[in-house]
Design brief:
Elements lengths: L4 E4 L6 E3 L1 H15 L7 H12 L8 H18 L6 H12 L5 E3 L3 H10 L3 E6 L5 H7 L8 E4 H4 L6 H11 L6 E5 L2 H10 L2 E5 L10 E2 L4 H9 L4
Parallel strand pairs: 1-4, 1-6, 4-5, 6-7, 7-8
Antiparallel strand pairs: 2-3
Helix pairs in contact: 2-3, 3-4
Length: 230
């Protein structure tokens, strides 16, 4: 068998946010602030930056929990909440952190089942915090993976070669015998430059490069063409 392992990015590749949880957050924030809660990527980044203005490295689950408490406190203050901010931030964290907050895309189970049934080693590589494994398990995908490589623990983010190498080392495989898929082209390119068979998943179907795919299931055809007789 030419390929022995397959690695996946997390967000946008395997899972996406649970809309019911987003609605719950908006409802709580609106009740406490007395005004509609309007989410945006820019707002989330601003809040993230505020929560990051702290000397503590997020290199453990306990440190991550403290980060999210700071995040939700910053969010509530931005929304104008002035009463019971710390207690309400904890309520948000308890309701959102690894608590049915993410859902697997429709093509995930079929794809993971295919590779698991053929004996592939499987891992996740993500620019995220130490809870990577917990979030995958929370989405019901824990049974498929043996390796979880998070940027906060490796100390670098994709497309730095070190994070891909850490994932390879965790499963005892080489890049040339591994597959990778990511929803960011620069990160799939980073794996490809190391020797992975690497795909860029574009879920809106706007495919531009030969390695762009619209569904994770499309990887199967590539693998079977590369390894006839499987």
């Amino acid at each position: 068998m030419k390929y022995k392992a397959i690695f996946f990015d997390r967000d946008g590749t395997l899972i996406h946010g649970n809309p019911k949880k987003r609605a719950w957050l908006a409802e709580r924030a609106s009740i406490w602030s007395g005004r509609p809660y309007l989410a945006s990527a820019e707002k989330s980044q601003t809040i993230f930056n505020q929560a990051s203005l702290h000397d503590e490295a997020v290199d453990s689950l306990e440190a991550e929990k403290r980060f999210w408490l700071r995040y939700y406190e910053a969010l509530l203050r931005m929304e104008g909440v002035k009463i019971k901010v710390e207690a309400r931030a904890r309520e948000l964290m308890d309701g959102l952190w690894c608590s049915n907050s993410s859902i697997a895309y429709d093509d995930v189970i079929e794809t993971l089942g295919y590779f698991k049934s053929r004996g592939y080693k499987m891992g996740v590589i993500s620019d995220t915090f130490p809870s990577l494994r917990l979030t995958i398990e929370d989405a019901g995908l824990g049974a498929y993976f043996q390796s979880y490589t998070s940027s906060s623990l490796v100390g670098v983010m994709k497309p730095d070669p070190a994070i891909y190498q850490a994932a390879l080392d965790s499963l005892g495989v080489d890049a040339e015998e591994s597959i990778y898929v990511d929803d960011y082209d620069v990160e799939s390119d980073g794996a490809r430059n190391m020797g992975f068979l690497s795909f860029h998943i574009v879920r809106n179907g706007d495919l531009k490069a030969p390695w762009d795919i619209a569904s994770l299931v499309d990887i199967v055809a590539h693998v079977e063409n590369a390894e006839p007789g499987m």
